Amino acid sequence: MSLTLSDEQRALQETAADFLAAHTNARKEADADAELWSRIVELGWAAVQVPEDFDGLGLGAVELALLMEEMGRRLARTPFLANVVLAQTALLQVGTAEAQQGALAALAYGERTATLILGPGLDAEPASLSVKARRDGEGWVLAGEAAQVLDDGLLTHAYVAARIEEAPGVALFELAADAAGLTRTPLDVFDLTRPQARWTFADVRVGAEARVDDPARVLAGLARTRVLAALQLAAEQVGGAAQCLQLAVDYTKERVQFGKPVASFQAVKHRVAEMMVCMETARSTVRGVAARVAQGVQGNGLDEAALAAEVAAARVQATEAYRYCAQEAIQLHGGVGFTWEYDPQLHFKRAHWASQWFGPTRDWREALAAHLLDAA
Amino acid sequence: MSMNEQEFRQEVAGWMATHLTGRFACLKHRGGPGDEEAYPALRKEWEQELAAGGWVGLGWPKAHGGRDLPLALQLAFHEEYVRAGGPGRIGHIGETLMAPTLIALGTPAQQARFLPGIREGHEYWAQGYSEPGAGSDLAAITTRCWQDEDGRWRLQGQKVWTSLAHESDWVFVIARSTPGSVGREGLSFLLVPLDQPGVDIHPIRQMTGEAEFNSVFFDGAVTEADCIIGKPGEGWKVAMALLGFERGVSTLGQQMHFIHELKLVVDVARGNGAARDPAIRQRIADAWVGLQGLRYNGLRMLEEDTGSTTVRPEALIYKYAWSNWHRELGQLAMDVIGVAGDVRSHDDAVRRLQQVFFFSRADTIYAGTNEIQLNIIAERGLGMPRA
Ligand SMILES: Cc1cc2nc3c(=O)[nH]c(=O)nc-3n(C[C@H](O)[C@H](O)[C@H](O)COP(=O)(O)OP(=O)(O)OC[C@H]3O[C@@H](n4cnc5c(N)ncnc54)[C@H](O)[C@@H]3O)c2cc1C
To answer: Which residues of B touch A250 (CB under 8 A)?
Structure first.
């Protein structure tokens, strides 16, 4: 395993950094940035983790994490998380070969844009799923409500994990975002860069082919999807934290009080140094775990418990780093840090969003504690 | 040399199993910071045993009697060594600080004179940087040195906090060779024998109760004319180069100790029921999380192109990160142990954790205090202006 980026990986990272710096506008007050999304698709980023057999680029967790880090830095408002990190990953982890054949390329090249619906905050526990499916002749009927879905208005499809009566108790359905009986109500969210909607399923009828999971893999596969996606979210959090640090450093170097830049006061220096310590530590862990995941894919696969533990480490560090860096970025900007105009508030809201979705850190820690302490 | 890592690990483990036995058995998991008073004489014999086995100077060039092993194998050695309970290395200042400095900056004669003693475990070294008036502000040192007519160097002054000086044969010293100079100018880097009338070593008792460091007084102490690394006046440069070696592979070896210590905490918690306390569970998880951060950060640090001149953030933050993690682990360990922690334990595991609790207070002081580390990170890593 190596943490050193290859030349190709470095090039991807640089392109992403330059492109997003030039083309992202986190403050545009519309649901989605359709133009940014279509350019991202043109650049091939949505095809990164799709295997070559499905016409994808066949790269892996490391490349995806580099992209997520840059997108987190710029708060890019696109369906990348929903479509690539969630929907594609779910399809790769639990989809039948037929379903993968039918949809992966479409998700990779913009013909389709999908989200993934699990339990609240993307909980993958079967008991947390709020949509139920029952058989209806050859097909199925979906009923229930998903209170908060990642939905920025650009979606064409969704993959919905629903509870079913028969074993294994959960199935994954593919449906159009404008299916009859489905109501999408946009929510009034604080983090405007991550739009959400409430999805109400009033007996949504789908055909038999809409069920896309392999029942033998659906439970473990959805759990793994959540873990792999949490690692990518951690990469995004690191990018956000890095940007908060950058904003704080740049601002304090410019701002003069008591006749000198406030950056020269030791209390300020120590604060930014602490930000750098937690952000860089999280970055090391995210890169390292992503490299292990990539190696696992090439080799025999990383054991589930070990994977979950490693991702927990990345997730906890990245969450704490982003929260801390966002909070301190506001503080070190003084009054302007409290305004709508300046960027720290955008990160503060994103950092909070990210700390709750995919489960709070106390749950990841408790899972780790169980792994470390309760084993026979 | 093409050596398979798996075979190499087996070789180390096999060697340890057959050598860390008999009279050396009592050394298992002993020694190291906070436990340096454990069997110092026997630990020196152990260094010689290691040397005879070919386990000292693994990364040194072959020309200097090393084995020139790649990083991965050096790491593998450290891991297997700690796994087998290998004792704290009493020769580490020589092997990991003095030797690389000699190899990088010493003359061939100096290399021939000093490297074999370090490698074979016959000569031990101490580090004479700090003084009563020069701690964080190291460039404030006032110990003087000058040359007699025959060229021999003489020293006058005092060093302090000199770890293991009482167990050492030599000390490397930075001293002021240009009278009236201030700061980083006018310093020289000298190698000084400790066993001589002009040197007086006074142990200082630490908060742990042990005396692992000392005051070292030089009163006209002497060393040979060629016992200087670099030229007179270049002492600061040499001293800093030496500190650069502090972040070598041995740092990752240290992580194996951390893993072992966390495992001890887990064992104690499972044994006494603390493992059921939700707050303790969160903290143990956090300790493990922190350890992964150190591990991946350490790997990133060692892997990155060492020739690159750009600032390497992971290297800048490492000392601050590990020392604070370790200090926190010590606190966690004692919270897990509970009331019994206040009594000096004879249980090996608990005793080790008690040492971690107390000794880790020093981790955030030596090799650059927390505050100095944060200054360095801010100024070098982020370009924050000096006051
Ligand atoms: C266990 C142990 C072993 C040691 N072994 C050795 C050894 O073998 N050889 C050797 O040469 N030295 C050794 N040292 C000495 C060590 O390097 C010094 O203790 C250290 O550099 C700090 O110096 P000081 O003790 O004089 O503290 P001071 O520099 O006096 O610091 C006191 C406090 O002031 C803070 N401070 C100082 N300057 C600043 C600043 N600019 N900004 C903000 N805060 C500041 C410090 O962070 C600290 O909190 C050892 C120390 C310990 C504890």
So the answer is: none
